[in-house]
Amino acid sequence: MIVEMLSGTSMDDYPLTLTSIVERAERYHADQDVISRRPSGAISRTTFGACARRARRLAGALADLGVGSGDRVATLLWNQSEHLELYFAVPAMGAVIHTLNPRLFPDELAFIVGDAQDKVIVVDESLLDVFESFRTAHDFSHVVVVNHSGDAVDTESLDYESLLSGADPVELPALDERLAAAMCYTSGTTGRPKGVVYSHRALTLHSLVAALPDQLEVSARDTVLPVVPMFHANAWGLPYAAALAGARLVLPGPRLDPESVLDLCASEHVTMTAGVPTVWMGMLAALDAEPERWELSELDRLIVGGAAVPRSMFEGFDRHGLTVIQAWGMTETAPLGAVCRRPARLDDGPRDDQYRYRTRQGVASPFFDIRARDENGQAVAWDDAAMGELEVRGPWVAASYHGGRGAENFTPDGWFKTGDVVRIDTYGCIRICDRSKDLVKSGGEWISSVDLENHLMSHPAVAQAAVIAVPDDRWGERPLAVVSLRDGATASPEELREHLAQDLAKWQLPDRFEFMEALPCTATGKFKKTELRTRFVSA
Ligand code: ADP
Question: Residues lining ligand 1, CB < 6 A?
């Protein structure tokens, strides 16, 4: 009897697939709103029920075009309801949705669609120019255009709405949970972009964990506005988490300027939103300029991640009664890996301690294992002093890249090397000190570019700051700060150095400051240090 109990369980081996999320949205959240702002600014309203029904027809239409199990369907779309329909239809029919970032260069997009061997592509009409820039590089079997203007699509393309209206809804097939569901390329800060292929199981578990109260906290009472694009690590999993939980979903389309996003937050009573820090910097400036313009009392939390969140951003939004929560993740981790929620032990602590805690990247999500190892491969202590490269593993962490490239990013014992250099405290809370390629090593001592950037951005005149290493005969490397000032503000290098000297040792201060009107950003909205290096390091 005991042997029998140990050798087998009585539990059903139920597959964890996105199909269950689609069916749940269709059955239980059919009336919940899905709101899209069109490129024209017009608002269109639909529901999860309607999206799921259309997804069934879309699956039928794509099958008629020859899309079969495992085939890649590329999307060149904004955050809009058609994109959600594709998020539902493509994985649920057994194919793979491959979201493309329209902000990449044409040669990168050409490389990516070829590497992924995309079969069909669905393009928003407003992105046809981008599509034309790489169209000839790859032989798509069909091009489908989401057409808002009512103009006829070109003779070589198919119209999305006509395709749907001519198709019959399909029964969703039973799928293996290990089947590929979606695909996304890393923005490739080094080398060529690399593809990450997510399984149904990975995205289903990711959605469940993302929805948890101490994670991104998505519930049926929320109105979720992902500013983070659906082509950037699945909008951090929010569309699936919202469909699972039955949250209202507001999809902002291409207009992501601060005023447009704040307008949408106010008019749609948004409770949670998410995006990279550069987006929120603009939002904060708009709120500071016109604090009374937007009624945001329902906006409960702003999830900010993808790059370090400076303390000035937490303080700035707190002044407006808005709570910023930092999260850490990567394309390779689907992306959620850690969330920084203030622990109860700090509730009554000094504000300074609270802010210091909130600028950390957070505690690993459930089922997400972390460790940090030094240059000799030794695991570093969780004492908040020793530094090492963060390595991770878990059910939604990549075990390889598409096509087997980048094998050096995985350890022989199955961990993914993040390239982030961290300290971990005794509670397991991560603090990113740098990316391994961004660290400055001066006279044998590490200088954290992240620390310098955070302190610079706390100066009232500074809008943006990035620190890079420049070769130095005496010290090996020295930090150089590239700064953009707020409109109308002035600050000299001496003044900025004095500001930094309040908190940092003299040898850590940048010797050189360069000023730019705006810092160059990557396609995912992070400071582009490669460009700064090319521009300033040889100068
Ligand atoms: P890429 O590496 O191409 O920019 P990702 O969008 O996957 O692609 O970025 C992942 C990286 O972004 C992480 O390895 C880390 O360096 C950085 N990052 C993500 N979230 C944070 C955060 N909260 N704080 C600091 N850095 C972050």
Answer: 186-187, 189, 305-308, 326, 328-331, 361, 418-420, 432, 435, 524, 526
Q: Could you give all domains of the chain from N- to C-terminal order, each with its CATH number?
A: 22-32+45-201 (3.40.50.12780), 337-435 (2.30.38.10), 440-536 (3.30.300.30)
Instruction: Answer yes or no: 186 catalytic.
Output: yes
CA 220 to chain CA centroid, Å, is 22
With a pLDDT cut of 70, the percent of the chain lying above it is 97
CA of 415 to the centre of ligand 1 (A): 17
Q: For the whole prediction, is pTM greater than 0.85?
A: yes
What integer pLDDT is reported at residue 41 of this predicted model? 93
441 catalytic per annotation: yes
Nearest ligand 1 atom to the CA of 362 is: 23
Count other C-beta atoms under 10 Å from residue 492's C-beta.
11
332 is written with which tokens?
A: 């390779």
Catalytic annotation present for 99? no
Dihedral of CA atoms 88, 91, 94, 96 in degrees, nearest 10, equals 140
Q: How confident is the model at residue 5 (pLDDT cuts 50, 70, 90)?
A: low
pLDDT tens, position by position, 174-188: 999 999 999 999 865
